Amino acid sequence: MSDPVRQKVIAATRTLVVKVGTSVLSREDDTLDEARLESLASQLQAVRETGRKVVLVSSGAIGSGIGLLGLDKRPDDLPHLQAAASIGQAHLIRRYDDCFRRRGLHAAQLLLTANDFRQRTRYLNVRNTLLTLFEYPTIPIINENDTVSINEIKFGDNDRLAALVSHLLDSPLLVILSVIDGLFDGDPKDPASKVIPLVESWDESLLKLATTDKSARGTGGMQTKLDAARTATAVGQNVIIASGQNPHVLAQIFAGETVGTLFMARGETVPAWKRWIGYSSKPKGRFTVDAGARGAVERQGKSLLAIGITAVHGEFFKGEVISLVDHDGREFARGLTNFNSHDARRIAGKRTDAFAEILGGLRYGEVVHRDNLVVIT
Ligand code: GLU
Fold this sequence. Notes:
The protein is of the alpha/beta class and 377 residues long. It is built from 15 helices and 13 strands. It has helices spanning 4-12, 22-25, 34-48, 61-69, 78-101, 114-118, 120-133, 158-167, 204-208, 222-234, 249-254, 272-280, 291-300, 341-347, 355-359, and strands at residues 15-20, 53-58, 106-112, 138-144, 172-178, 198-199, 238-243, 261-263, 285-289, 309-313, 321-325, 331-336, 373-375. The strands form two sheets. It has an eight-stranded mixed β-sheet with strand order 3-4-2-1-5-7-8-6, sandwiched between helices. It has a five-stranded mixed β-sheet with strand order 10-9-11-12-13, with helices on both faces. A hairpin with a 5-residue loop joins β11 (321-325) and β12 (331-336). The two termini are 32 Å apart. The structure holds glutamic acid.
């Protein structure tokens, strides 16, 4: 059934980012499900033909490596997982390329680590490559660079990676395809539970609906999908979680039909620069702020003034990304600091009119200007 809210979302979509999980792509014996890949390729091609840009974030490297090697279980140590990913990724991309070539398209492989998003220049390079790929008959296929990713540089899961990829692009719709039909209003195994068709606001009860169960092959679960949806909707993007086992899922989504769960964008689109500050960058330090400053930043969209800062943590230069945390240490915003850590310590808790004397000249009135500040919700 076509739905007006869904139709509006589709009409506003210029770019489609599809994330597909390992469980959708694998058969029981861990080998790649070729029919699924074919179906995915033809659905993506159909969306591309509507004039939209299409990006695929695909898991399945480790899973398919395990299948190819005939291992009886998923290795539990990093080197063997990385070796499986290395073998599986080559196979996965070859299979995708075969499927897309039959449709006149090339598979373009991008293997990324979290560092590629944290560093602004690398981030922009990824963006430029993607935008250039859109000029050619290709489908960019992104996965984490598992063979080099260790804990410090890992995204954690491809749901998060897909949300960050969607932040790079204009007017995206993020579709997360899994083996579950969407977000259920109760235990998905209970036949009385139903898929929630539309989520417009986020509260504690919603977050509780994510069970920690994960599918046998993938690394995520509903929790990581909800986290990804939360990140993407916070910056003004729409997200759908639906079943990748449905061979017509993308066609139905683009027909505006009520499939899966639609998470509506919360508020206006946050500009690309702020999306990077808020969700991709790696903060170099922290400002602990009092309740007054937190309220001014969070609810009134004000700049951060020195008077509201109660502590400065870390060593940083002017212009670097800093977290704003409350007295419980909870991060609620990020922004670019106008002062290095040395000067910030000297002016913390002081009124702006005292800066000139402390620093020998007033350079900036705000420690973090609202134009460079992002509230994380
Ligand atoms: N990068 C992993 C793989 O391709 C999957 C990670 C995930 O599914 O979250 O096997």
